[in-house]
Design brief:
The protein has about 120 residues and is of the alpha+beta class. The chain is built from 1 helix and 8 strands. An 8-stranded antiparallel beta barrel has the order 1-2-3-4-5-6-7-8. Strand 4 and strand 5 (about 85-90) form a beta hairpin. The radius of gyration is 19 Å and the shape is globular. The termini are far apart.
Length: about 120
């Protein structure tokens, strides 16, 4: 039994180290390439609505939800991690930003930590 346990622990450690080694050399995502105007939808504490997002080359953004009771604006920042992943922080929470392709065009998906909301945006031509 002890022998089997050592094999399992050694295998888990090897997988963890391999994951660290492969991620260490990956460059951070280029936030500057995401700068510009984006349109889409946002689901947050205020509701679900059409939204606009404007991002600067340094990752600072301002998003506006267009709600019947009045527009709601939130500011935040998108930060690249050494792993190449993108994270966002805002007044509405934190999460991951995924750069995707939708219909051949670049798209951004904001996925909040813990689920429950987020946004999907396409670049304005």
């Amino acid at each position: 039994m002890r022998q089997r346990w050592r094999v399992v622990v050694t295998g888990v450690a090897a997988v963890a180290l391999a994951g660290c080694a492969t991620g260490a050399g990956r460059p951070a995502a280029d936030v500057g390439a995401l700068a510009g105007e984006w349109r889409g939808r946002w689901l947050g504490p205020a509701g679900h609505a059409v939204a606009a997002l404007s991002m600067k080359p340094d990752g600072v953004y301002r998003a506006t939800m267009f709600l019947e009771g009045g527009d709601r604006t939130v500011a935040g920042v998108v930060t690249p991690l050494p792993s190449g992943r993108l994270r966002y922080q805002s007044g509405d929470g934190n999460g991951e930003v995924r750069v995707e392709t939708a219909g051949g065009a670049p798209a951004l998906r904001f996925v909040p930590d813990g689920g429950g909301g987020g946004g999907a945006f396409r670049r304005v031509p």
